[in-house]
Structure formats: structure tokens, C-alpha cells
Design brief:
This is DNA alkylation repair protein. The chain has about 230 residues and is mainly alpha-helical. It is built from 15 helices and no strands. The mean pLDDT is about 95.
Length: about 230
């Protein structure tokens, strides 16, 4: 049984659908055949998630199980909104809820919109063994679990903690999926924005192991000559 708040959110999503945006989404996201795209811009979904941040977790569950893409995104962004103010047991409950439903986080935009803002705060402030979840996700047969592990480290990077990302880059450098290679490059680039010499030192040690696309992404903000040196070598 759905609640009035859940039905109101679903109605608002449909009211904001734009056919031209749906066409763009289909081209960029390449969703599975059973996905329904409404054509709602991500900033609009974010605003709605903020408005409906007090949805019951049972309603969030319904959204995550939906085959409407924007409903799953809205559910994840509601979790992210709640994580902003959650502490202690509530934060642990939200993280557990998310991790038990990563099968619903099944496209790159859903991962990138949720991993660092739902799981990320737990990695930063959680118990000593919180980082163990990264290794579990990185070992998963699911492409999306592995990408969650990588993107979640953005929260650590923003706190100046780079080693978990470097460890994943070493461990996933032979991953068969380009979406993992791109995510690794993105996170390494974020490290380079904060500590260029450290990124350069990492690349010099591990260049031969890293996929070419990872190197291209990672070096985007390096000086042109230095970037060209790494890209040519790969």
C-alpha cells in the first residue's frame, strides 16, 4: 500500500517530465529494456528529494524497487538528504539499508549520485572497520557494487584521506569494465586536484598497470606537458 506522500512525489516527477530530456537520457544512460525513463532533469529530482526527505523508509524501498529510473534516483537522493543530518544509530541504519539494496543502484548515474553521499559519510566517521566494506564491494561480481566502492571514496578524498582510493586503483586496475576504469580515473583526478605531486608519484609507480582510460581521466588537470608524458606512455 502506498502512502499519500509517496504518491505525491510520483505525481510531481511525472508532472516535470520532458520528452526531449527523456531522449537525452536514453542516449547517455543506455538503460536496460525494462527501465522507464520519464525525462526529469537531475536538479529537479534533487529538489524533490529535499522536499520529501522525511519519506518513510518503506516508501523509499518502493521507489528503489521501481523500474522508473527517476523514482530510483529520487529514493537514493532522499537517503542522501537524510544522511546529511543523521548521526549514530540512525546513520548506521541508513547505511545498512543502502548496502542491502545495492542491486537497485543499477546504472552509473545512480551510483554517482549516491555512493559518496550515502556510504561516504559512514566511511569518514564510522567505526574502525567501516573501510572494510570497500573491499567487500570491490570483490563483488556486480559492476555497480564495484563502482560504488570507488565513487564512495570521494568522501574520504575530500577529507584528505587518499590511501583507500589508491588501494582500490591497485586492486581494480585489471577490472574488465570501462566504467570502473573511468571511475578510478575520476577519483585519482580528484586526488590530483588536492595534491598533484602525490598523484604524479602514484602514476609513476603504477603507470604500467593502469588502463589507458584511467590515466587519461586521472591526468586531465595536470600541466599539458606532464599529462602528455603519461598518456603517451600508456
Amino acid at each position: 500500500m502506498t502512502t499519500p506522500s509517496l504518491e505525491a512525489l510520483r505525481t510531481e516527477l511525472r508532472d516535470r517530465a520532458q520528452p526531449d530530456i527523456r531522449v537525452q537520457q536514453a542516449r547517455v544512460l543506455r538503460p536496460p529494456e525494462d527501465d522507464e525513463l520519464l525525462g526529469v532533469r537531475v536538479p529537479v529530482v534533487r529538489l524533490l528529494a529535499r522536499e520529501y526527505r522525511d519519506l518513510a523508509l518503506a516508501d523509499v524501498e518502493v521507489l528503489l524497487r521501481s523500474r522508473v529510473h527517476e523514482e530510483r534516483l529520487a529514493g537514493l537522493l532522499v537517503l542522501a538528504e537524510r544522511m546529511r543530518t543523521a548521526r549514530g544509530a540512525e546513520r548506521a541504519d541508513l547505511v545498512g539499508f543502502y548496502l542491502e539494496r545495492t542491486g537497485c543502484v543499477d546504472n552509473w548515474d545512480l551510483v554517482d549520485g549516491s555512493a559518496h553521499v550515502v556510504l561516504g559519510p559512514w566511511l569518514v566517521d564510522g567505526p574502525e572497520d567501516a573501510l572494510d566494506i570497500l573491499d567487500e564491494l570491490a570483490a563483488s561480481p556486480s559492476l555497480w557494487d564495484r563502482r560504488i566502492a570507488v565513487v564512495a571514496t570521494l568522501a574520504l578524498i575530500r577529507e584528505g584521506r587518499f590511501e583507500p582510493t589508491f588501494r582500490l586503483a591497485r586492486g581494480l586496475c585489471r577490472d574488465p569494465e570501462p566504467l570502473i576504469h573511468k571511475a578510478l580515473g575520476w577519483m585519482l583526478r580528484e586526488i590530483g586536484r588536492r595534491d598533484g605531486p602525490l598523484l604524479v608519484a602514484f602514476l609513476e609507480r603504477h603507470l604500467a598497470e593502469l588502463p589507458r582510460i584511467t590515466v587519461r581521466y586521472a591526468t586531465e588537470r595536470l600541466p599539458p606537458g606532464e599529462r602528455a608524458r603519461f598518456v603517451r606512455a600508456r
